[in-house]
Design brief:
single chain; alpha/beta; Rossmann fold; Helicase, Ruva Protein, domain 3; five-stranded parallel β-sheet; three-stranded antiparallel β-sheet; 23 helices; 14 strands
Length: 497
């Protein structure tokens, strides 16, 4: 389609101006009628947040996305440009994207008055109609709204009451755009007041000028609930003027969490070639995140971002790649012990309460890993806590003793045996150490007969970690890896030191 280049051509084409909210509504109705999604890569919000967003857009509301960190608030806001018309015309050279058929600025009005239908127009693509501002305490009224430019006044010999001396702020420059303010509570209250008029009456005033710019914008704000009481707050009159406040949330199922992490984690071609990833590892990572969100050591009001799981999975891939390079191997299956490589992703992304600070970030991270293993272990194998003691068996009971499910493994360590799984061990050495444990290979054959032989070592190691978390074995963290031994023997060693 040929686009007009002058105001006269635009009029002749029959073009009719639409407000940005009319664009959003019209294109949303079309998407809904054709069963097309308005967001891509946003998982878990299909029946909660997305319908709320659709209702807010159809209502012509400004929107506040309220939720803890890592809940895709900004990602959703950025995708709203997909509901805009592909191109809109504006007066060429205009700082505030003046509509040629309804100009606002002195510049555009003067151009049209001088050149009439020969006024040049340009076209703005929808991807250029997104403006984002991170709210920080140092943001000023001039930054958002604008101010008098004394240099311009002097250079062009203009009086200070002349509209042409105005330097427009970021909000006027976002006219006919989606304008997003992230972390709204971080704006100082006196700065938040400047948004009252634009949200209620749709216009702004600059330094008391008589000129009132009736801007056409779609406002989207993001905020963290904790910010209301921590760093700042949204003043009540401003909250009252925001049309819809939409609550976001963390994924409600383990599967959705895993899908989000898999989608967002960066995995280059080199890693995919050398890393054999088993589904057990992403599952453990997501369980760890779930554990962190309810941990007594982690500040639940701050939240635990989905970025923790994303960074953790990326670290896992890199840890295996590093081991492959060190051992000059071609490929390697991920291991349970590789979870040690995700500790930097944990310690940097959780906000701890006082008890967590006292415990120490490293200990908290290891405890979260242990809890994730413990929870997942019970999904695959008999729960060691529920196994009955021999003395509790009724006389004449012919059922096999459930505690014997692990006895062959634990008895190996009770004989004083110790194994060490080093982080950089080759697959050959890793397999040799695990196979040295009596009964563990047979245990996997009995309880996981369906697994591929290449996965067997992973499950054998998982059993050792699980038994350690259920206090059937002792697991000791060393600089170079992990050491497993009998729990009672490790206590004696400790008491003798």
């Amino acid at each position: 389609m040929t686009r007009s280049t002058t105001l006269g051509e635009l009029k002749a084409s029959g073009y009719k101006s639409k407000t940005i909210q009319e664009e959003l509504k019209s294109n949303l109705r079309e998407r809904l009628a054709n069963k097309l999604p308005i967001f891509t890569g946003i998982l878990g919000y299909e029946n909660t947040v997305v319908p709320d967003m659709e209702r807010a857009i159809l209502s012509g509301h400004s929107i506040n996305l309220l939720g803890l960190r890592g809940q895709a608030k900004t990602k959703m806001a950025r995708q709203l440009t997909g509901l805009l018309d592909e191109f809109i015309p504006y007066v060429t050279g205009s700082e505030i994207n003046d509509d040629p058929l309804a100009p606002l600025s002195y510049f555009a009005k003067e151009k049209i008055e001088k050149h009439g239908d020969n006024t040049l127009i340009s076209w703005l693509h929808r991807d250029e109609r997104y403006v984002e501002k991170l709210a920080t305490p140092d943001v000023s009224v001039a930054d958002l709204i604008g101010d008098i430019d004394p240099i311009k006044a002097i250079n062009e010999k203009l009086n200070y009451n002349d509209e042409r001396v105005i330097h427009y702020g970021i909000i006027p420059r976002a006219n006919r755009c989606i304008f997003v303010i992230n972390e709204l509570p971080d704006l100082q209250p006196r700065i938040q007041v400047t948004l009252f008029n634009i949200l209620q009456e749709g216009d702004i005033q600059i330094r008391g000028f008589k000129v009132r710019l009736a801007l056409d914008m779609q406002f989207v704000f993001t905020a963290n609930p904790e910010d209301y009481t921590n760093r700042g707050s949204i003043v009540t009159p401003l909250k009252d003027r925001i049309g819809s406040q939409i609550l976001t949330h963390y994924p409600k199922t383990l599967k959705i969490s895993k899908d989000i992490t898999s989608q967002e984690a960066k995995k280059d071609a080199a890693k995919k070639e050398v890393v054999i990833m088993h589904d057990l590892i992403p599952t453990l990572i997501e369980r760890l995140v779930i554990e962190a969100r309810s941990s007594e050591f982690v500040d639940e009001k701050s939240g635990v971002s989905a970025r923790l799981a994303i960074s953790a999975l990326e670290n896992i891939y890199s840890g295996v790649e590093r081991r492959v390079v060190i051992n000059n191997d071609k490929k390697s299956l991920v291991r349970i012990s590789d979870l040690s490589s995700i500790i930097p992703a944990i310690t940097g992304k959780i906000e701890m309460v006082y008890e967590g600070e006292q415990e120490g970030p490293l200990n908290v991270a290891n405890q979260l890993i242990g809890k994730a293993i413990r929870t997942e272990f019970a999904e695959h194998f008999p729960n060691p806590e529920k196994l009955k003691q021999k003395k509790n068996r009724k006389e004449g009971d012919t059922q096999p003793e459930k505690e014997n499910a692990f006895s062959r493994i634990t008895e190996y360590f009770e004989r004083g045996k110790t194994i060490e799984l080093t982080n950089d061990a080759s697959d050959k050495e890793y397999g040799r150490v695990l196979n040295s444990v009596d009964g563990i290979a047979l245990f996997i054959d009995e309880h996981k007969p369906e697994i591929h032989p290449n996965e067997k070592m992973l499950w054998m190691e998982f059993v050792l970690h699980g038994l350690a978390e259920y206090s059937k074995l002792s697991k000791h963290q060393m600089d170079e890896g992990l050491q497993f031994q009998d729990l009672f023997g490790s206590m004696l060693d400790f008491s003798g030191q």
